[in-house]
């Protein structure tokens, strides 16, 4: 028996819907690309009011554009992120290419954007942690993002998401240390 999802999942297209519905009992709203029309926004707004929304877009640039547009316009949506390596074929990237386990893992690690949260990590601390300005910054960002199920954000987006999770410098340092110890 498939797991039932109360919220409506916003995905990019029919293939995503088909895969999600093969693994889960869920309803979806498809964006059909990055040019979100008023009608799609209205559907998502209504879904958010009645059942809640989970944004589950592809781990690529267009997917991030769609996610950002929806989060900016409709507060309180939950966000599911899937690692790009878990959602790709040699030629394509997308939720529809992920396996059941990876999709369920993404849905078990949801985040909600909240502009009202206080900043727990300063940009100075973020730089001190080595997430920007070092030769291994990209690798460090990727490691912490993978560990926290945040997709593959760029430097600015990772800073925002770490604050969204209300993590401080000490907590992040500990995670980085644990990761380094694991790789030794």
Automatic annotation (TrEMBL):
<dbReference type="GO" id="GO:0006364">
    <property type="term" value="P:rRNA processing"/>
</dbReference>
<keyword id="KW-0540">Nuclease</keyword>
<keyword id="KW-0378">Hydrolase</keyword>
<keyword id="KW-0699">rRNA-binding</keyword>
<comment type="function">
    <text>Required for correct processing of both the 5' and 3' ends of 5S rRNA precursor. Cleaves both sides of a double-stranded region yielding mature 5S rRNA in one step.</text>
</comment>
<dbReference type="GO" id="GO:0043822">
    <property type="term" value="F:ribonuclease M5 activity"/>
</dbReference>
<keyword id="KW-0690">Ribosome biogenesis</keyword>
<dbReference type="InterPro" id="IPR004466">
    <property type="entry name" value="RNase_M5"/>
</dbReference>
<keyword id="KW-0698">rRNA processing</keyword>
<keyword id="KW-0694">RNA-binding</keyword>
<feature type="domain" description="Toprim">
    <location>
        <begin position="6"/>
        <end position="92"/>
    </location>
</feature>
<protein>
    <recommendedName>
        <fullName>Ribonuclease M5</fullName>
        <ecNumber>3.1.26.8</ecNumber>
    </recommendedName>
</protein>
<keyword id="KW-0255">Endonuclease</keyword>
<keyword id="KW-0479">Metal-binding</keyword>
<dbReference type="GO" id="GO:0046872">
    <property type="term" value="F:metal ion binding"/>
</dbReference>
<dbReference type="Pfam" id="PF01751">
    <property type="entry name" value="Toprim"/>
</dbReference>
<dbReference type="GO" id="GO:0019843">
    <property type="term" value="F:rRNA binding"/>
</dbReference>
<comment type="similarity">
    <text>Belongs to the ribonuclease M5 family.</text>
</comment>
<dbReference type="InterPro" id="IPR006171">
    <property type="entry name" value="TOPRIM_dom"/>
</dbReference>
<keyword id="KW-0460">Magnesium</keyword>
<keyword id="KW-0963">Cytoplasm</keyword>
<dbReference type="GO" id="GO:0005737">
    <property type="term" value="C:cytoplasm"/>
</dbReference>
<dbReference type="Pfam" id="PF13331">
    <property type="entry name" value="DUF4093"/>
</dbReference>
<dbReference type="InterPro" id="IPR034141">
    <property type="entry name" value="TOPRIM_RNase_M5-like"/>
</dbReference>
<dbReference type="InterPro" id="IPR025156">
    <property type="entry name" value="RNase_M5_C"/>
</dbReference>
